[in-house]
Amino acid sequence: MKVGILGATGAVGQKFIRLLQGHPWFEIEALGASERSAGKKYKQAANWIEDVVLPESIKEMTVKNCEPSEFSTVDFVFSGLDSSVAGEIEKAFATAGIPVISNAKNYRQNPTVPLLIPEINPDHTELIKTQNFTKDGSGWIVTNPNCVAVPLSISLKPLHDAFGIDSLILTTMQAVSGAGYPGVASLDILGNVVPYISGEEPKVGPETRKLLGTLEGTDLIRPEFPVQATATRVPTINGHMISATVKLKNTPADIEEVKAAYTNWKNPIANLKLPFAPKELYKLHEEEKYPQPRLHADWENGMQLHLGRLRKAEVFDVSFVAMAHNTIRGAAGGAILNAELLVKKGFLK
Ligand code: NAP
User: Fold this and answer.
1) 88 CB under 6 A from ligand 1?
2) Where are the alpha helices (DSSP H) in 225-308?
3) Is 66 an annotated catalytic residue?
4) Which atom of ligand 1 is nearest to the CA of 11?
5) How many angstroms is it from 53 CA to the middle of ligand 1?
6) Widest CA span of the chain, in angstroms?
7) pTM over the 0.90 mark
8) Contact 338/278 with Cβ under 8 angstroms?
9) Is residue 349 part of a domain?
10) Which residues of 23-53 are buried (b: 16+ CB within 10 A; e: fewer)?
11) Which of 41, 156, 221, 330 is most buried, judged by most C-beta within 10 A?
């Protein structure tokens, strides 16, 4: 399939370009960015920050304006657009009959738009049928969650299924790549921790509850548990870490029962053999010093969820540390996996 990338010059856009090299189903056909970049060769428009060589096939491509008419030859687009412009541009593409698979926050809480993690809520793709961007249903939007909601909801899912979530408290330790480029000023973050990330905390609870919601017909019934989040920026490069303590509805007998909830959990897309899906979704670390972003963020091509420090909590029921690669599992890689699921389900054809 021929794909376009909107926001191709940004941090997430570059990750798309890197990850799509050699993809068995998807080929990059067109790149779009702002007026500042449009008309330039990609190698001139983008400040390439990936630690691999800029692919030859991309270097000489001319960056386009993010206008649907300039993307008429693509089957769908991935969006890594800045949220200040993603709302209007993504709507224009969907209205023009071009499906949009987005990283931006703008449509995540729209009741007709799936907020999708294939292993967690693959059935939510049915919501696409309730969208009315086009009369024939050819244009639609699917989003992937914020880079904290991704590891949080993946780590909560087996607990939610086995015991029910009552409430939770968490603190994030978020890598600098999550702020894009140039991101956080070096004097703010080197040798330091910043205990606030603007706009981050209010997304965590609503997105996690939407992801863990149950579809009844076309209604998404969301669980109601409260989430108290503190979002901090730390001087790591990739891999967002979360320290969470959870109160469950049904208290497990012991920590072994909690571990069993993870090891017995059935991955609903295990049989689909999607190219970007990790072989093992959960890496349960037994060593107390793990997981660590620098050591583990790239495992399974950055698509694995790392869980460690799983223990009985003195307050509430269970504490753990979770970690996943924020620009791969939490952004571009997650969006590619979404597209693969949408191919298997027949929405992309
Ligand atoms: P970024 O590095 O600032 O890139 C933003 C992209 O948007 C650039 O390609 C930029 O093009 C383009 N853009 C800006 N204004 C535009 C306009 N008026 N018209 C068309 N294109 C325009 O940001 P990022 O970190 O890649 O994040 C991209 C999106 O993904 C954001 O919505 C962000 O919230 C989301 N996200 C990021 C992460 C992460 O870990 N970084 C994780 C999950 C989700 P120019 O180069 O031409 O300005």
Assistant:
1) no
2) 255-263, 293-296, 299-302
3) no
4) 26
5) 21
6) 63
7) yes
8) no
9) no
10) beebebbbbbbbeebbeeebeebbebeeeee
11) 330
**Ligand 1 pocket check for 34: Cβ under 6 Å:** yes
Domain with residue 185: its CATH number is 3.30.360.10
Q: Could you identify the residue written with the tokens 């249903």?
A: 137
Does residue 167 sit in the same domain as residue 205? yes
Q: For the chain, count helices (H), then strands (E).
A: 11, 14
Tell me, yes or no, whether 19 and 155 share the same domain: no
Q: What is the pLDDT of residues 224-259, one digit of tens each?
A: 999 999 999 999 999 999 999 999 999 999 999 999
Strands 165-174 vs 240-248: parallel, antiparallel or unpaired: antiparallel
Ligand 1 mutation pick, 5, 6, 9, 12, max ligand atoms within 8 A of CB:
12
Q: How far is the CA of 239 from the centre of ligand 1 (A)?
A: 19
Q: How far is the CA of 257 from the centre of ligand 1 (A)?
A: 42
User: Residue with structure tokens 């790239």?
Assistant: 298
